[in-house]
Design brief:
- This protein is an all-alpha fold and about 190 residues long.
- It is about 70% helix and about 0% strand.
- It has ten helices and no strands.
- It is globular.
- The two termini are about 35 Å apart.
Length: about 190
């Protein structure tokens, strides 16, 4: 490995906690305000690959692309144009350095990507109720995973679900009961 560099002090501490999790899995640590999801995710990768630094780089490379995917999917769901969705991702170019050089231990980028992706999938499922069942549940799963990674995700998911409820009430292209039942089930799942 080429060593370990981090952007902020939290990065190193979270990395150390993930390494501890890889040695002896735990549900929580006394006095630790962070959720165990990131420790379990990075710690599992460390245990699986054997080299904690290689595991960190691999996971960071995969997870830190999630915001770009989330922006693309949400733009596609809102604008229904691949060209506009690609432009939205291109506008994030100044952030790519931070996205690609993250340690994999910080949760803000994957949470952002999961919330945006989950919201996009649920919006597209509401627009196409006959074909959107799988997308709705996949979107709810993305939101549930986000809430397991960071406490702030709970606030983001609550606002997202309120917006989705209002959208479901305003749409008139499918029976209201079907839209509300789907929203209710996916909302419960999305809060993990």
């Amino acid at each position: 490995s080429g060593g370990f560099r981090f952007w902020v002090g939290d990065d190193a501490l979270r990395w150390l906690r993930a390494w501890q999790w890889s040695q002896a899995p735990f549900l929580s640590l006394p006095g630790d305000p962070w959720l165990v999801g990131p420790y379990a995710l990075l710690g599992s990768c460390m245990a699986l690959l054997g080299d904690p630094l290689v595991a960190t780089r691999l996971l960071a490379s995969l997870l830190c692309v999630l915001p770009l995917v989330g922006v693309f999917l949400l733009s596609l769901a809102l604008f229904r144009s691949v060209a506009l969705a690609a432009c939205a991702v291109a506008l994030l170019t100044p952030d790519w350095l931070h996205i690609l050089l993250g340690s994999g231990a910080m949760t803000e980028l994957p949470v952002t990507g999961l919330v945006l992706s989950g919201l996009a999938l649920q919006i597209s499922a509401l627009r196409e109720p006959s074909e959107g069942g799988r997308r709705a549940w996949l979107g709810a799963g993305c939101l549930a995973l986000a809430t397991s990674l960071h406490v702030v995700a709970w606030f983001l998911v609550a606002v997202a679900q309120l917006g989705l409820l209002l959208a479901a009430l305003r749409m008139d292209d499918a029976p209201l009961r079907r839209r509300l039942v789907r929203w209710d089930g996916t909302a419960l799942l999305s809060f993990g």
